[in-house]
Design brief:
Number of domains: 1
Number of helices: 6
Distance between the termini: 29 Å
Helix content: 25-40%
Number of strands: 5
Radius of gyration: 15 Å
CATH architecture: Roll
Shape: globular
CATH topology: CBS-domain
Structural class: alpha+beta
Mean pLDDT: 89
Order of helices and strands: HEEHHEHEEHH
Low-confidence stretches: none
Largest sheet: 3 strands, mixed
Strand order of the largest sheet: 3-4-5
CATH superfamily: CBS-domain
CATH class: Alpha Beta
Strand content: 15-25%
Length: 138
């Protein structure tokens, strides 16, 4: 099974200059826990609900803090034509719950999450492997 068969295609993007309040509102409205951060057509980071809690709230930063101050800049991603089994092993190894999905021109075409694998019957074995690896202490 290919990543493209399990991923979510409708991806909402954040901008580096948005505030945490704006991004948290988007996450709440869309019921999602992560947003790729884009500047123009270039992916520059990821921000998650966990980033907001750990890197902002726990550090005393307010809701008007800019995304760029707390986002993860080192972006891990996969390609839409990769084998889902290989990608799930990679997700387990790097302990990532979500990965942006790129085409071979390095354009964002989706996002792959554990939830995507959970809702796909064919992806169930890959979900188990990924979840087991992600849940191990580092």
């Amino acid at each position: 099974m290919k990543v493209s068969e399990a991923m979510t295609r409708d991806v909402v993007l954040a901008k580096p200059n948005q505030t945490l309040r704006e991004v948290a509102d988007i996450m709440s409205q869309k019921d999602i826990g992560a947003l790729p951060v884009a500047e123009g057509d270039r992916l520059v980071g990821m921000i998650t609900d966990r980033d907001i809690v750990i890197r902002a709230v726990a550090e005393g930063k307010g809701p008007d803090t800019k995304v760029t101050e707390i986002m993860t800049e080192q972006i891990r991603y996969c390609f839409e034509d990769e084998d889902l089994g290989d990608v799930s092993k990679n997700m387990a190894g790097i302990q990532m719950r979500r990965l942006p999905v790129m085409n071979r021109r390095k354009e964002l075409v989706g996002i792959l999450s554990l939830a995507d694998m959970a809702t796909s019957q064919a992806a169930a074995p890959q979900l188990h492997k990924a979840l087991k690896g992600i849940s191990q202490p580092m």
